[in-house]
Amino acid sequence: MAPVTAFGTRNLKFDLQSWLSGAITNLATCNDELVGTNMSTILKDKIIVSLEKVTTLVNDQWAFVLQMPDDTVGHDFQSWSDSHDWKLMQVDVILANITVASYGSRDFTSIMEAVKAAPNNSLARFVIYIKKATYKKYVSIPQNKWNIMMVGDGMDQTIISGSHSNTTGYGTYGSATFVDITFENTAGPKEGQAVTLRSDSNFSIFYRCGIRGYQDSLYPHKLHQFYRECRMSGTVDFIFGDATVVFQKCEILPRQALPGQSNTITAQGRDTPDSKTGFSFHLCTITGDSDLISSTNPTPTFLGRPWKTYSRTVFMETFMSNIINPEGWLRWTSSFESTLFYGEYKNTGPGASTDKRVNWPGVHILDSSQAQLYTVSQFLDGNSWLSSYSYDNIQAVKETKESCHEKP
Predict the structure, then answer these.
(1) What local confidence, expressed as pLDDT, does residue 168 receive?
(2) Which CATH number fits domain 83-399: 3.40.190.10, 3.40.50.2000, 2.160.20.10, 3.40.50.10240?
(3) How far is Cα of residue 209 from the mean position of the Cα atoms in its chain?
(4) Which residues contact 65 (CB under 8 A, 6 or more apart)?
(5) pTM of the predicted model as reported, rounded to 2 decimal places
(6) Residue ranges per domain, the chain?
(7) Among candidates 363, 251, 259, which has minimal Cα distance to 305?
(8) Which listed residue, 23, 55, 70, 180, has the most CB atoms within 10 A of its CB?
(9) 153 in active site
(10) 15, 85, 200, 216: which one is catalytic?
């Protein structure tokens, strides 16, 4: 278990709400995994009863935390991504602790060997430089490997590739950072759910990374995550999970799916009304991947559908091409239409018109004050753990005379 001083911010109430949201997500994931298992009914019922007891305890803690003042101060904290980190991500010469390469000068030929060589529970950044190549081995980062930064040679140069058709990819924890790397799952659309990248890491950053797959491609499972200038492609629910995430200046590329399928960019899994989780897309572009654009019968494409009861997703100042269906959002179950929260704010492009959007109680056109709630600074509490060089705030924040930061 990491100490509070290692993984917290100075906002104790924010931290407690975040950790409790993560606990709720874990409980929901356990329940989801029980469905369809082959274990005996007696054993399954015992597990369900235990999960219900833990859920009750978590909900009791929620009630306590909600009564705390908003400005409750916690312990001293470490700013996970200072300006030095962001400058490190952008330099041409990588100052790495370890180098991985398939040939030539290197410390290791395997990414997993490099991960194992990293120190345990480190409060200092540990940089692994992965030279350009396609690495076809699965990698999992253990929970005791804190503060790992993986830097590649470019989004289309350093590629981590696999073909499992289940929940595979990365399990990350403890402020992991990835730069200039592509993760791909080569299992085709006929293989069904095939996760390319899963992240459980709190305060994780993905910068100039690619995530390529089809159904259920990117799985930001829980806690706080920030994706900047990344490229994501997929088909059905290809960004799904229950983390608190901001995607900023990312390129979203829906692909051609199987006949009869519809593309849904998001399937957010918020399951309780008090949970602080959700997806925020800011300053992104949504266009089709080449196979979708060139198709004579392109797959109908929607911004998302609600995976769980209180699903929450917003798109702000994002360009949407004409691949987006005018209705915008796709039904999962009609009972979620009044409990979900879908928001749009000052989006542009032929797919951004809200004139024909679905008329659900939970779909909203945001004003500037509402949009501010989903910025990096407020939704992720980014001022406490992200460098001020690393993100942009929306025009609404400029209008209220708060700072708007550009990377150098």
Answers:
(1) 41
(2) 2.160.20.10
(3) 12
(4) 13, 16, 17, 20
(5) 0.80
(6) 4-66, 83-399
(7) 363
(8) 180
(9) no
(10) 216
